[in-house]
Structures are given as structure tokens and as C-alpha cells.
């Protein structure tokens, strides 16, 4: 059976691509998810690419990942800067965690410069758009393999 990773996306990520001139580019969330599926398949892993606008659902998925996933990627979106419950759930996850952001959060508003998620993350990828999502899959798979070796 293939190893599994969870790729969780927070509030409003489902709107990617709807504002062609917006911060997050023109590619749709569905299209980005398909790219991530292909990248995961190229590594021989299963990715559960999910999005919710609700903090509790994200916490539930992180807890679910504890039982079935070897790695986790999260773009908690607006909850990145405020969610202690997401941080607490991530701290209970035993595998590598990549924090991913489509935009460079350090070039944006000052409140985005502090991430609650980073306290639990193994690493952070930000500012590379959808390519960063694919790189996050590469990174988490490499970290998972390093743990097994």
C-alpha cells in the first residue's frame, strides 16, 4: 500500500483563480489540486488534497492524518495567523509538516508575518504560487523517505 500525505487548505483557497489579477494567480483551485495529484503519483504516494473554510474541519483532518498519513502539508490560509487549535493539532502529528503559501507572506501585510503554523512545521514554502504546492509535495516525500532510511 502506498504512503499517504494530507494536503490541507484553509479558508478561501477554493477561490484561487477567480480573480485573474489577484494575489493568487489565475489557476483554479481544482487545477492546482490536479497538479498536486499528478506530482504525488510521480512519487508513488497518495495525496488527500482538501479544503475547508472551517477551522474545526481542518483540526479534524489533521487528527485523521495522525492515523493514516506519513506526511502533511498545510496552507491554513487566514487561520495561519490566528489558530491555536490548528497549531495544537499539528504538534500532535508525528510526521514531517510543510507549511505552504501561494504568496510570499513576508511581502504582505504585517499581520501575516507571524505564523502560528510555523511552530509545528518542519519547513515553509511561500511565494512560488502553484509551483510551491508541487515543491511542498517533493519536500514532504523526501522528508518521509529520510525518516525511513
Automatic annotation (TrEMBL):
Protein's UniProt keywords contain Repressor: no
Active site: 24, 101
GO-annotated biological processes: amino acid biosynthetic process; aromatic amino acid family biosynthetic process; chorismate biosynthetic process; quinate catabolic process
Catalyses which reaction(s): 3-dehydroquinate = 3-dehydroshikimate + H2O
Top EC class of this enzyme: lyase
InterPro entries: DHquinase_II, DHquinase_II_sf
Keyword tags: Amino-acid biosynthesis, Aromatic amino acid biosynthesis, Lyase
Residues bound to substrate: 75, 88, 102-103, 112
One annotated GO molecular function: 3-dehydroquinate dehydratase activity
EC number: 4.2.1.10
Keyword Heme on entry: no
Pfam families to which the protein is assigned, alphabetical: DHquinase_II
UniProt pathway: Metabolic intermediate biosynthesis; chorismate biosynthesis; chorismate from D-erythrose 4-phosphate and phosphoenolpyruvate: step 3/7
Function as written in the Swiss-Prot or TrEMBL entry: Catalyzes a trans-dehydration via an enolate intermediate.
Quaternary structure annotation from Swiss-Prot or TrEMBL: Homododecamer.
PANTHER family noted in UniProt: CATABOLIC 3-DEHYDROQUINASE (PTHR21272:SF3)
Family: Belongs to the type-II 3-dehydroquinase family.
Cross-referenced NCBIfam families: PRK05395.1-2 (NF003805), PRK05395.1-3 (NF003806), PRK05395.1-4 (NF003807)
Protein's UniProt name: 3-dehydroquinate dehydratase
Organism: Pseudescherichia vulneris NBRC 102420
Lineage: Bacteria, Pseudomonadati, Pseudomonadota, Gammaproteobacteria, Enterobacterales
Gene that this sequence comes from: aroQ
